[in-house]
């Protein structure tokens, strides 16, 4: 995979951030960010998708692993936006750990 292909990650983050700044009725992201349960709804999804990812890996089905990991990554990004964490901050932390 080329570096350009990974730009979907920053694009998606920006879309999620835009949903926070410009709420709309029919948006799934807004339904999570503005849920009556608050951050707990997002954490519920992160938990669910984590379990589904673990089960997919255990099933040895690569397509499922990719599908469920994508769901997990997406919900993690919603969590980052909800808590004001940028992808740069995550990258900086990972960079600090680089040996
Ligand atoms: N990448 C995604 C994405 N991945 C997963 N999902 C949604 O995440 C949910 C996954 O949860 P589940 O599998 O548990 O499905 P569910 O039963 O509908 O979920 P719940 O009822 O339990 O909340 C599904 O509703 C998927 O549609 C996503 N929804 C949106 N996006 C991106 O986010 C952007 C903004 O979306 P909107 O906010 O809807 O405009 C879109 O342009 C997409 O690029």
From TrEMBL:
Pathway: Amino-acid biosynthesis; L-histidine biosynthesis; L-histidine from 5-phospho-alpha-D-ribose 1-diphosphate: step 2/9. It is found in: Cytoplasm. One of its GO terms (molecular function) is ATP binding. Signal peptide: none annotated. NCBIfam families: histidine_hisI. It catalyses: 1-(5-phospho-beta-D-ribosyl)-ATP + H2O = 1-(5-phospho-beta-D-ribosyl)-5'-AMP + diphosphate + H(+). Its EC number is 3.6.1.31. Gene3D superfamilies: MazG-like. This is Phosphoribosyl-ATP pyrophosphatase. InterPro entries: HisE, PRib-ATP_PPHydrolase-like. Belongs to the PRA-PH family. Pfam families: PRA-PH. It is an enzyme of class 3 (hydrolase). Keywords: Amino-acid biosynthesis, ATP-binding, Cytoplasm, Histidine biosynthesis, Hydrolase, Nucleotide-binding. The lineage of its organism: Archaea, Methanobacteriati, Methanobacteriota, Stenosarchaea group, Methanomicrobia. One of its GO terms (biological process) is L-histidine biosynthetic process. Its main location: cytoplasm. One of its GO terms (cellular component) is cytoplasm.
